Amino acid sequence: MMDTGLLTSTGERLPEYACFQWTQNLRVCPADMDVTGWCVEFHPVSHYWPTQLLESSLVLVLALALAGVARYGAFRLVGARRA
């Protein structure tokens, strides 16, 4: 999801916390706000593969960095025990 909020009868979008500011309750909205429901915006389908590749790349880089640190630590540990 990219964004969520409230929808009025005119089609205007309000932030999801708009009712909470007046009533201190997310489920109750004043009648004069004319809220008719919720709206949700999702990422378009065209964002799927670029997002997937970016997140996979980040995980791969972090795994390689962790493996490098572990390898460095292992060599230091073995070298210290040999001496």
Description:
Helices cover 49% and strands 19% of the residues. By secondary structure, it is α+β, with helices and mostly antiparallel strands. The chain folds into two domains: 3-41, no CATH class; 46-82. The protein has a three-stranded antiparallel beta sheet, with no helix packed on it.
User: Number of helix segments?
Assistant: 2
> What's the Cα radius of gyration?
25 Å
Note the quaternary state here.
single chain
Read across the widest sheet, the strand sequence of neighbours is 2-1-3
* Integer tally of domains: 2
Order of helices and strands: EEHEH
Per DSSP E runs of 2 or more residues, the count of β-strands stands at 3
Mean pLDDT over the residues: 88
β-strand amount: 15-25%
- The level of helicity is 40-55%
How far apart are the termini?
57 Å
Q: Could you name the ranges where pLDDT drops below 50 across 5 or more consecutive residues?
A: none
